[in-house]
Design goal:
The complex is a heterodimer.
Chain A: E1 7-9, E2 18-21, E3 27-32, E4 41-43, E5 57-58, E6 63-68, E7 71-75, E8 88-90, E9 98-102, E10 107-113, H1 117-124, E11 138-144, E12 147-153, E13 160-165, H2 169-179
Antiparallel strand pairs in A: 1-2, 2-10, 3-7, 3-9, 4-8, 5-6, 6-7, 10-13, 11-12, 12-13
Chain B: E1 2-5, E2 8-11, H1 18-24, E3 31-32, E4 39-40, E5 53-56, E6 63-67, E7 77-80, E8 86-87, E9 90-91, H2 95-98, H3 107-111, H4 117-128, E10 142-154, H5 158-164, E11 172-175, E12 191-192, E13 195-196, H6 197-209, E14 214-217, E15 220-226, E16 230-235, E17 255-267, E18 271-273, E19 286-288, H7 289-299, E20 306-311, H8 316-325, E21 329-335, H9 342-350, E22 354-357, E23 359-365, E24 372-378, E25 385-392, E26 395-399, E27 402-404, H10 407-411, E28 416-419, E29 424-427, E30 434-436, E31 463-465, E32 470-471, H11 472-480, H12 486-493, H13 506-517, H14 538-542, E33 554-555, H15 559-563, E34 567-572, E35 575-581, H16 588-601, E36 603-607, E37 612-617, H17 621-628, E38 641-647, E39 653-663, E40 666-671, H18 676-690, E41 697-700, E42 705-712, H19 715-722, E43 737-743, E44 746-752, E45 760-766, H20 770-780, E46 787-788, H21 791-801, H22 822-827, E47 849-855, E48 867-869, E49 879-886, E50 894-901, E51 910-915, E52 918-925
Parallel strand pairs in B: 1-7, 10-11, 10-17, 11-14, 17-30, 19-26, 20-21, 20-26, 21-22, 33-35, 36-46
Antiparallel strand pairs in B: 1-2, 3-4, 5-6, 5-7, 8-9, 12-13, 15-16, 16-17, 18-27, 23-24, 24-25, 28-29, 31-32, 34-35, 36-42, 37-40, 37-41, 38-39, 39-40, 42-45, 43-44, 44-45, 47-50, 47-52, 48-51, 49-50, 51-52
Classes of the chains: A mainly beta, B alpha+beta.
């Protein structure tokens, strides 16, 4: 198994892609049980409310990914600590209508970079990775290489993050190594 | 380029297909027919080829039944014929041809009845010449890739190129099965807009290549249209030159399957020339006229030196002209139409080529290959002959009209109809997603067509489907046997059911069946046109999902420790887990006995990380769980756990585990390892669909935690030594309680639960801290003789305690009362999922299968799956063993859990156990088999 931070497929001179297993970072799942989308929910000191459209991503630290109705992932930097629940505040809603669960230890993320990123992703998932469908600051949950995954587009052209459950890391690493063979 | 066919060294030109190269080398016989072992040669030049099927390569990279007509020649290619013994050109199997009268349609079904088809299958398949699938693992890579577009254009001929030129911004995929775009126009010398077609094609391709969001795929065939508008495209021969690129080029997969999702599909699939039907129309040398022209113009290969043409339409005249212009002897053109169009006649007169109107071949002659043809002169009605004449020739180029390739249209649900004017299948109506264009949609410009089937001759020698050796006589037999539907005729005779899917036979089958039934062909409908359009290799279908990537294996956070410390890893559900930790030279059974004994006499360490874990937050979390479990959870206090069983609506057991209240609005549920995802989905379904008003959030957290079970008498001391900073005494921390603590500076959640019957704690730490915690516990337990134990030992220990293992001891019919939990259900007043079903008469029958214990004879064995019979029972079975093992301490007596009819009524009885012809007996006992009072559990 690769050490964290090393490449599953490295970029050579003519290589169109690199895949890197990322360091552990803070991942929190925020879920509300209010039937309505809570437009006022925001992180403390954040300039804007949480995104409410499924698949939308708000930049910042942590990055906020809306992965379902009333459901977000808060993704921090590798060295960041999970955000305590107290950092959240609700504008115009009951404060106890949400839960925050730390999932930092259960996720494994691969950074995919290169002009062939979308081609690589299309080998594992039936999603449409065209920039018009999954462009910058967009994410989607999908079935990737037979397993549940979260894919986030960081850049229109080439940069993505692919997150799966930690137990599948070794399998996915092998899968990615096989799938990137044609670009080595 | 050098290549070999049946071991004979030959040479060809770059750009040739294997069929073209073989023709150029004078190889006339390429195969033996499926049933009668008649010699067969190249018949066409494309995917429709019914004869020239060969085995490519050898060993692990061999491909059986490859069509030589679309196989690119490359240096060193090796091809083999698939039938003919001892040799292709001298085949003893030819004797089958003499038995032709006895080998009518359906003879397989009618003949090989006794003792069974399996007895004959091997030899019949060998005789049929179906090729040999490689046995060794394929060393090459394959892949499946997804593709989205607005418009998918299938076919890269002129019509396809035009259809692909759409406004900017439109996402277009153009697939072409050939090596080049342009279709026939790329080589037939035609002109477009006053300039050579090749020039127009080059400009069109360049324009498409330069357009954003347009993807062009060559050597790719759209093989099937599936639900939701999904189209499978098979891209082949990505690496035609061999498995590895010596120049270090990209390591491409050998083949690729594209899953294309298109908003709309344009079928520019063109048309395929159809044959004429007459006696002995299958001899090597009989070839489709347009194919003869393509071999000549594209590959510079002549299909013969003395050539006769036979047609029922205009298109063969272009072939005649080209063959003549190449200096070949074109003897004449027999045209089954009574009147030949003036233009065709004039073109032939110009070249002094004879034209015989109202004439068609009625028989051929030759030993092995074609040496001559008899042309019959049709009467005015076309139903009889007025006379005829013989011609010597070595090639007979035939054209029976054209039929559009509409398989995808049909698979998409589009209706086809036989068009009397062209003798072809045509779209009957429009389809919202699929639009045929060009020759696929319209009658090709081949003029009116004449007779396709000779009116006289032995119908047993008139081949309709060359691939499956189906003759007109077979169709006649089907009609005599009252197969009236063309689909049923197809099934009896197998016409159109082979790898070519009837591309050169279906219109003729419809026409002949209609004539035999005395109806119009257009009234008959058409047989189902099933995918795939052309064969797809198993490799392309599997893609990367083979070997280690076939099924994703889940690994525990402690996997690296297990792998480097002698664990024998096995798959349990989706998880790869240690079955046991073998010492050098130790047998599996010995390791199992050692590990179980370690837990019973000292202390064991078990990786329970795969145990499913789901957190529920919210004011209604407990109320929600109370509705899902049979147990009363309403009074469960924070810091305490309870074992619980969850039912389906039918009342059968779905899963079990513990429910822990961490705080008034925070619960933790554990599930069986294999059922974690199912239980989460089950909870979400009930919350989202049935009780959305309950305020809670459900979060699966299995992956977040490494879970380590410490089981055995000294477990408490081991945890203390490991540095846990909480009071572990039984009073402060009783059985089924939970505490949070710090373990070596990291937060940990400690559950006192047991699946072994011993004093046991489950230590949960964040996954990345799992190995550190595991090693800390091992060190702390060293003095106590701690040992890591695998899954097999755990299952043996829980068996001794009679603990239920859902999925092993239960099936989809087991209700709580069957496993001794009926009282809990009855005592719970509140409603829960499945409660109502528990009152059904079926679920309260006294003779239901019930879980009991079995004690076997000393030295004997109780086999899992062994069936039970009660004394005096006349039933074939009264139940079966679900789990089995031996007691850990003492004499090693065999024990088991079993589902037994009316089980609890039979405690003390002896049942017979039957397994694979062996018989033993066992006593029915009440579990558990060990520590009945539970003293160890509550220590």
């Amino acid at each position: 198994m690769l050490e964290r931070g090393t490449a599953a497929a490295t970029a050579g001179e003519r290589t169109a892609i690199s895949v890197m297993r990322m360091e552990r970072r803070s991942v929190m799942r925020l879920k509300t049980w209010d039937a309505r989308d809570p437009p006022g929910l925001r992180l403390a000191d954040a300039p804007a409310p949480l995104p409410v459209g499924v698949g939308m991503v708000a930049a910042g630290d942590p990055r906020v990914l809306c992965i379902g109705p009333g459901e977000w992932l808060l993704i921090g930097t590798p060295s960041g600590r999970p955000a305590p629940a107290g950092l959240l505040r609700l504008d115009g809603a009951k404060t106890e209508d949400w839960s925050l669960v730390d999932l930092s230890s259960g996720a494994c993320t691969f950074a995919i970079d290169g002009s062939a990123s979308r081609d690589l992703l299309s080998k594992g998932s039936g999603l449409d990775f065209h920039p018009a469908q999954l462009g910058t600051r967009r994410c989607a949950r999908t079935r990737f290489a037979q397993i549940e995954a979260l894919i986030e587009c960081l850049d229109d052209e080439r940069r993505f993050e692919l997150s799966v459950a930690r137990s599948y890391a070794a399998y996915l690493e092998s899968w990615l190594a096989n799938a990137t063979e044609e670009w080595r | 380029m050098r290549f070999r066919f049946d071991g004979v060294p030959l040479s060809g030109q770059a750009g040739d297909t294997l069929a073209a190269a073989l023709l150029a080398n004078g190889v006339r016989i390429l195969s033996r027919s499926f049933k009668f072992h008649r010699p067969r040669g190249v018949f066409s030049c494309g995917v429709e080829e019914p004869n020239a099927l060969v085995q490519l390569g050898s060993g692990a990279r061999a491909i059986p039944s490859a069509r030589a007509t679309i196989t690119r020649l490359h240096e060193g290619l090796e091809a083999f014929s698939q039938s003919g013994w001892p040799r292709l050109d001298w085949d003893l199997g030819r004797a089958a041809d003499w038995l032709l009268p006895f080998l009518a349609a359906g003879f397989y079904n009618k003949t090989f009845k006794w003792p069974g088809w399996r007895r004959y299958e091997g030899s019949v398949r060998r005789a049929a010449g179906l090729g040999r699938a490689p046995i060794d693992a394929d060393p090459d890579g394959y892949e499946v890739r997804n593709l989205h577009c607005d418009t998918l254009v299938v076919g890269g001929g002129i019509a396809g190129l035009q259809a692909a030129m759409l406004p900017p911004g439109e996402r277009v995929v153009l697939v072409e099965q050939d090596e080049q775009f342009g279709g026939c126009a790329a080589w037939d010398g035609s002109a477009i807009d006053g300039r050579p077609a090749s020039s127009w094609i080059g400009a069109a391709v360049a324009r498409l290549v330069g357009t954003a969001d347009v993807r062009l795929l060559l050597r790719s065939t759209a093989v099937g249209f599936y639900e939701q508008g999904v189209i499978a495209v098979h891209e082949r021969s990505l690496r035609p030159d061999g498995p590895e690129r010596a120049d270090g080029g990209p390591r491409l997969p050998r083949e690729r399957l594209w899953i294309v999702r298109a908003r709309r599909t344009v079928l520019a699939t063109g048309a395929i020339e159809q044959p004429l039907i007459f006696c002995n129309n299958d001899r090597p040398g009989v070839v489709l006229a347009a194919s003869a022209r393509q071999y000549l113009r594209r590959h510079g290969v002549a299909v013969g030196r003395r050539i006769v043409l036979a047609t029922n339409n205009d298109s063969a005249y272009a072939t005649a002209g080209d063959l003549h212009a190449a200096g070949l002897a074109v003897i004449g053109v027999a045209d089954s139409r009574p009147e030949v169009p003036g233009g065709c006649r004039a073109a032939m007169l110009e070249r002094s080529i004879a034209v015989w109107p109202g004439a068609m071949p009625v028989n051929t002659r030759g030993f092995g290959v074609l040496t001559g043809v008899r042309i019959g002169v049709l009467s005015r009605t076309g139903n009889t002959l007025q006379g005829g004449f013989d011609l010597a020739c070595d090639a007979l180029a035939v054209s029976g009209g054209w039929s559009g390739q509409l398989q995808l249209f049909s698979q998409a649900g589009g209706r086809l109809v036989y068009a009397d004017t062209s003798g072809a299948l045509r779209p009957e109506c429009e389809h919202p997603l699929v639009r045929p264009v060009g020759a696929a949609a319209d009658d090709p410009p081949a003029g009116a067509i004449g007779r396709r089937v000779a009116p006289v001759g032995d119908t047993r020698r008139q081949w309709v489907d060359l691939r499956n050796d189906v003759t007109v006589a077979d169709l006649e037999l089907a009609i005599r046997e009252n197969y009236t539907s063309v689909e049923h005729v197809k099934r009896l005779t197998t016409a159109g059911m082979s790898v070519d899917q009837g591309k050169t036979s279906q219109p003729a089958v419809i026409e002949i069946v209609a004539r035999l039934r005395g109806c119009e062909p257009s009234s008959l409908g058409h047989p189902t046109l099933r995918p795939p359009y052309t064969p797809v290799t198993m490799g392309a279908l599997a893609g990367a999902e083979r070997g280690p990537l076939y099924a994703p294996a889940r690994l525990s956070p402690l996997h690296e420790w297990h792998a480097s410390n002698g664990a024998e890893l096995e798959d349990y559900g989706p998880w790869r887990r240690p079955a046991h930790y073998a010492r050098p030279g130790e047998a599996r059974a010995d390791a199992l006995a050692r590990e179980t004994r370690a837990v019973r006499t000292r202390v064991g360490l078990f990786d329970a990380s795969p145990l499913g874990k789901i957190e529920l937050h919210g004011p209604d979390a407990r109320a929600f769980l109370d509705r899902l479990y049979i147990n009363d959870l309403s009074k469960l206090e924070p810091g305490r756990s309870r074992y619980g069983i969850m039912l389906r609506e039918t009342g059968s057991i779905l899963d079990d585990g513990t429910v822990t209240v961490l705080s008034p609005e925070h619960c933790l549920v554990t599930t069986t390892s294999a059922n974690a995802a199912r239980v989460h989905a089950w909870m979400e379904e009930w919350h989202q669909c049935e009780w959305p008003h309950l305020h809670l959030a459900i979060t699966p957290v299995t992956e977040q935690w490494a879970t380590i079970a410490v089981a055995g008498g000294p477990a408490r001391e081991v945890l203390r030594r490991a540095g846990l900073d909480i009071d572990l005494s039984s009073e402060a921390f009783p059985h089924l309680a939970v505490r949070t603590a710090m373990l070596r500076g990291r937060p940990a959640r400690i559950h006192r639960v047991s699946f072994t019957g011993e004093l046991s704690y489950e230590v949960n730490v964040p996954a990345e801290a799992g190995i550190e915690a595991w090693q800390a516990l091992l060190e702390a337990g060293e003095d106590a003789g701690i040992e890591p134990v695998g899954v097999e030992a755990l299952l043996r220990l829980r068996l001794e305690k009679g603990y239920l293992h859902v999925g092993t001891d239960t099936d989809a019919t087991t209700v709580p009362a069957d496993v001794g939990w009926g009282g809990v259900c009855e005592r719970k007043r509140a409603d829960f999922v499945g409660k109502r079903s528990l009152t059904l008469p079926e679920n309260i029958r006294a003779d239901r299968l019930q879980l009991v214990g079995l004690a076997g004879p000393d030295g004997g064995e109780l086999p899992i799956g062994g069936h039970l019979r009660l004394p005096g029972s006349e039933s074939p079975t009264d139940g079966w063993i679900t789990s089995a093992g031996r007691v850990t301490l003492g004499d090693g007596q065999p024990i088991a859990l079993a589902m037994l009819r009316g089980g609890r009524q039979h405690y003390g009885a002896r049942v017979s156990v039957h397994d694979l012809g062996r018989r033993t007996t066992a006593e029915v006992v009440r579990p558990p088999f060990f520590d009945v009072e539970g003293a160890r559990l509550h220590a």
